[in-house]
Please model this.
Amino acid sequence: MLDVKGVVKRFGDNVVLNRLDLTVDQHEVVALIGASGSGKSTLLRCVNLLEQVDDGQIFLSGTDITDPRINADKVRAQLGVVFQHYNLFPHLSVLDNITLAARKVHRTDVAVAEQRGMDLLRRIGLEDKAKAFPDRLSGGQQQRVAIVRAIATDPELLLLDEITSALDPILVGEVLDLVRHLRETGSTILMATHEIAFARTVADRVVFLDGGRIVEQGPPAQVIDAPTEQATRDFLSRVLH
Amino acid sequence: MSLPTDFVTEVEQDRRRYRRKQTTRSVLISAASTLVFAVVVALVLANSPGWAVTRETFFSGHYFQLALPAVLKGLWLNVRILFFAVIGVAILAVILATLRSLRGPVFFPLRFLAAAYTDLFRGMPFLIVLYLIGFGIPALNPTERIPAAVLGTIALILTYASYVAEVLRAGLEAVHPSQRFAARSLGLTHGQTLRHIIVPQAVRKVTPALMNDFISMQKDVGLISVLGAVDAIRAAQIQQATTYNFTSYVVAGLLFVAFSWPFIRLSDWYTARLRRREQSGGVV
Model:
């Protein structure tokens, strides 16, 4: 499904991704863990074509999306992205936020798009907020709306970039429940996270990044509970106290 | 320890008494100072040696009535010019702001021209633009007569478009980049992102500044009188020239104030509302 091959990304002299290889299979949930600056977010931004890679290739369903001749907007339309700070559109109602891509990018009929939007809102228990503006919602509600906005057009791959970092512990729970639900419905997810406990319960595979490279990867029971690399052990001991 | 909420404790009652007293005090002080100020101004004016003559020359009821119809008729021309100028400014300013926001080396000439334009017209006094357009364009083709009102409208559009373009550009840049990322991530194209996400937010941000530009345009429209178009100011000048009484200028001035007043209030109200929405609650 997603195939990252030898990707390099530099910001000035700083090498953020250093010949990184990673694959994500269909219906797989992969959690990227690692310290700040280890390249988690940059990798997601490269996959989403918000950043240009400096070398290597990224394949999405067999297509090389780093090829400048492809239509980047079409690629992004197949991906769903959720950001740390929700990035909802403040001038649009909750429902309009969710249906925007369907209406403008996929040219879905407005009634159909709104029907689907309301279904999704009902699923996360926010149907009464459909006409409200994002600033009237709590952080957890905003992030759930942002997730629903990302999945409203059935993307092939969902990218979650530290989606709980801006939330307090009580609100984190409701957002993670939603991600768990997405996993059960068969979404393919690549996420960067600081929530080690969550990565353990929801991810099929945990990938530990350090210095722009994959140091260790495998099932959570292996990487989190029985890491073999010293760098992984150091990181986990700092995060898990 | 659960008191009904409509019960007010002694501490809160004391606070309220104190605040009421403070409010009353403030109102009394400001009323007194206003009164003193008015009395001083009245005394100074009434005791000026030329006050009787000045009053007759500038504030004569007779000449006020005499000048009013002609000046009102002139103001109607100002209103019409303003109407067309606002439309022209809106179109030209959006074009200029868009040109200046274009990225990529290909667009350098357009970006440069737009920047040069806004620099030139923001720096040049409006009166000079008026003279150059008003007397320069007719000189190009002396056989055809273009009405002064049309030339004045063009000058007004050229000058104000440069101000408004800069305000719009600032608004576009004030929308956080994360909004663009979010929109592009959904698959929206650059153009769609601009139209559905960036511009609507930018316009909300700069509405108070745009209203301010509109208010200043409402009175600058009177400057076209220097080209000979019979607007409110020109009409007042004609009155003054025939009667040797300056009341007509006061008439024109008051009419301009009355004309722009609703927009000034609207702009204040809107700005205050924006501020209230941004900081809900709080006493400072």
Notes: The interface with chain A takes residues 178-179, 181-189, 192, 196-197, 200-201, 204 of chain B (CB under 8 Å).
